[in-house]
Design goal:
Elements: H1 2-5, H2 18-31, H3 45-54, H4 59-84
Helix pairs in contact: 2-3
């Protein structure tokens, strides 16, 4: 996906500005693949996954961390919903 999307980074409709990409790259460079644990957070999670692709994070590690993060979120939401009903 990264290889397809990054070539459109200079287009007006691209969802992230260059400043956002630079900020995300700096953040990812500082915290590395562990920053993907925050991929479940609305608004800031999706740009992190895009930056991970741009920086060529190995797919197996990306898939494992993002699955744990987002899966954990939905397990927690399911548990909370069932507990409150």
């Amino acid at each position: 996906m990264r290889r397809f999307l990054i070539r459109f980074a200079d287009r007006r409709w691209f969802p992230f500005s260059q400043a956002q990409m630079d900020r995300g790259t700096g953040w990812y460079s500082r915290w590395g693949h562990w920053s993907l644990l925050a991929s479940w957070v609305p608004v800031i999670g999706d740009p992190r996954t895009l930056v991970a692709g741009v920086l060529r994070e190995p797919f197996w590690r990306f898939a494992l961390i993002v699955t744990l993060a987002k899966g954990g979120r939905y397990l927690l939401l399911t548990w909370a919903t069932l507990a409150l009903s």
